[in-house]
Design goal:
Blueprint: H1 14-21, H2 24-35, E1 41-42, H3 43-54, H4 64-85, E2 88-91, E3 96-99, H5 102-107, H6 120-140, H7 150-174
Antiparallel strand pairs: 1-3, 2-3
């Protein structure tokens, strides 16, 4: 059974985080609020964004049925659940929504790995294996690695890991919720 709110200390429980992220509409809400975290977002604006995303159209091209379906679902289920967990703050008086600090905790559970990529943990494991093989080949005196000094070998390995870390940082920022390049999978 899922927690009905946050654990002591204001943290979002793993069960609640996975519950929030398990629904594409909720991920879409988080994405839009993250992109607009400098302001409070009107509920109707949020409905229009989610409906446009869901129907693969623009806000201007939405019809009333498309808006109504999303409005009803967000009003009856999603907004209340996200507010109860503490990842958003819904102000019913103003009909506005904003992200909370707890939303950052939920983001940690969302590592998006595009279909053609491998997880970074596997990449670094493979890179470590290649580095270890290079050290072993140098130590054993295998050609052409026998000519490498310890300092040269260390510099090569450090450079490869540094370049990998830069690429990893760039790609992770691009895949972060709220990024212009982030894609919400249905």
């Amino acid at each position: 059974m899922l927690d009905s709110g946050t654990e002591s200390g204001g943290s979002v429980s793993p069960d609640d985080a996975f519950d929030i992220l398990s629904n594409p509409r909720r991920r879409c809400i988080l994405h839009y609020l993250k992109r607009n975290e400098d302001r409070r977002v009107g509920f109707r604006e949020l409905v229009e964004y989610v409906a446009a995303w869901e129907n693969d159209t623009t806000v201007e091209q939405l019809d009333s049925d498309e808006r109504k379906r999303v409005y009803t679902a967000l009003r009856q289920s999603h907004i209340d659940r996200m507010d109860d967990v503490g990842v958003i703050d819904y102000d019913a008086d103003c009909d506005e929504v904003t992200l909370t600090e707890e939303a950052r905790e939920v983001e940690l559970y969302l590592e998006r790995v595009p279909r053609r990529d491998i997880p970074w943990s596997e990449y670094y494991l493979g890179l470590s294996a290649v580095g270890s093989a290079l050290v072993a080949a140098t130590w054993a005196g295998a050609f052409p690695f026998a000519e490498l000094s310890g300092l040269t070998l260390a510099a090569i390995l450090a450079a490869v890991f540094a370049v990998s870390a830069v690429v990893h940082t760039y790609r992770s920022a691009r895949n972060r919720i709220g990024s212009d390049k982030y894609q919400i999978d249905p």
